[in-house]
Amino acid sequence: MPVSSSELIEARRDEIISACEKLYETMSFKDITIREIGRITPFGRTSIYNYFQTKEEIFLALMQREYELWAAELRGLAESTESMSLADFSAFLAHSLEKREQLLKLLAMNHYDMEENSSSESLTAFKVAYGASLDAMRGCVKKFFPEQDTERFIFVFFPFLFGVYPYAVATQKQLDAMKAAKMDFKMHSIYEMIDSCVRQLLGGAE
Q1: Residue 146 exposed, middle or buried by CB count within 10 Å (0-12, 13-18, 19+)
Q2: Cα(12)–Cα(60) distance, integer angstroms
Q3: DSSP letters along 40-52, please?
Q4: Would you say residue 95 lies in a domain?
Q5: Which among 74, 86, 177, 202 is placed 20 to 30 Å from 120, CA to CA?
Q6: What's the number of domains the chain is made of?
Q7: What's the rounded Cα separation, in Å, for the pair 47 and 57?
């Protein structure tokens, strides 16, 4: 069956997003350019502008993809599981976000600039994916912990995620600076922070 033009567009967009993701594993946002992304795609820098207007749009699409994958995982949990203990649910969320380190890293970035430098269409598509993750989480909390205030959980937990990455991952330069400043600071893993937060927010549900 021949590939349709819409399928080809989506495949190309996905290749560009994946190339950006690969670079972001070792490079900072400011150092990644359209040119750099083009170097590791089979169709080059100029063609990228047929799919994304700015670098920020590519990063926004990467974050959109991460939210879509996470939302699908949450929906799968709600559909396949009848009940969960608080310990099991907090562990599930901690593991699910431990796998989504790129999402947490993106959340620590300046969203205002990223969204301002993206088209309305790209921003809307991202907001749809973000909204779907909120709804998927609502579905889990309402099903497994019906006596809890779901909206309170949502509007504490989701903003909390914006600060997880900086507290879990530090460069050697940051660690040296904290040591020089004589800061009494202990790094915690993504798992530890998510698990602790969920337990505290839903404590007493069991």
Answers
A1: exposed
A2: 16
A3: TSTTHHHHHTTT-
A4: yes
A5: 74
A6: 2
A7: 15
Question: pLDDT tens digits, residue range 165-206?
Answer: 998 988 888 888 888 998 887 778 999 999 999 999 998 544
What letter would DSSP give residue 202? S
113, two tokens: 């600039």
Q: What is the pTM of this model?
A: 0.90
Question: Residue 115 carries which side chain, given as an amino acid letter?
Answer: E
70 and 172 both lie in a single domain: yes
- The span from the CA of 182 to the CA of 141, in Å, is 41
Domain range enclosing 104: 55-201
Check residue 11 and give left, alpha or beta (phi > 0: left; psi -120 to 50: alpha). Answer: alpha
Query: Over the chain, what is the mean pLDDT?
Result: 92
Query: Distance between CA atoms of 194 and 180, rounded to whole angstroms?
Result: 29
* 112/76 Cα distance (integer angstroms): 31
45 in any annotated domain: yes
